[in-house]
Amino acid sequence: MPTNTNKPYGTVLVKAKEILDFLGRTETAPTLAEISAGVTMAKPTALKVLTTMNELGLVRRDDQTKRYYMGTQLIAYAQKALASFDIAGTVRPYLERLRDETQETINLGVVRDDQIVLIDKLESPNSIKLQSIIGGTMNLYSSAMGKAVLAGYSTAQLHQYLSGRELKALTPATLTKQTALQADLKRIRQTGISIDNEENEPEVYCLGVTLQKSNHLYGAISVSTPKYRLSDERRAQFVRLLLNTQHAIESVL
Questions:
Q1: What is the biggest distance separating any 2 CA atoms in the chain, rounded to whole angstroms?
Q2: Among 104, 179, 110, residue whose Cα is nearest residue 143
Q3: Based on the number of CB atoms within 10 Å of its own CB, is 192 exposed (0-12), middle (13-18) or buried (19 or more)?
Q4: What is the pLDDT of residues 37-50, one digit of tens each?
Q5: How far is residue 105's CA from residue 109's CA, in Å, rounded to a whole number?
Q6: pLDDT tens digit string along 157-171?
């Protein structure tokens, strides 16, 4: 009888991951009974796995409340994983496909010091080149990628970003009033798509989304096109393709 070579080795490891996934989803630290029910695992089995995980520092049990928390050992693992994670290399095949599907310029940026730093750019096969360069920076408030990031900020984070900040006009279309920017961010939260309508560069229209998973922001991507090339039909197509790309990338992060 043929064997399944892709079958995971070590069912205890699978159970431990199920528990960690459950702990990551819950808003409050669960009890043994809640974990057992949440992962559909018998209490004795869950207790054995949790006891081992507690000894390894993967979970932490509060002896008074008898509730379980993520272990501090995971912090070191997370820091090491993030340090070795190559976001540009990981997402590039997806960006190449998006560039080929849209025939427009695709950008990848990360947040540094309240700005978007462009770390990858796939040029449109069409003749017109846009001004942005790899390593260059853009304002959060005036770029599609930046506004996508701001839309995900908490009230406190957004207040901190806007406090005392002058929203300088880069073009006549730049949103320079905080009330206008906040209204735009509300729309972005509702639609999931940010728009830079000639706000960062004259005659350039951009659509952007963030790349995030498990409350960690990895960066943002955008489609940029000369505005004269953008019809309502192409815009709707770009929105669909951009959201599909976002979901595909976030599934592998």
A1: 71
A2: 110
A3: middle
A4: 999 999 999 999 99
A5: 13
A6: 999 999 989 999 999
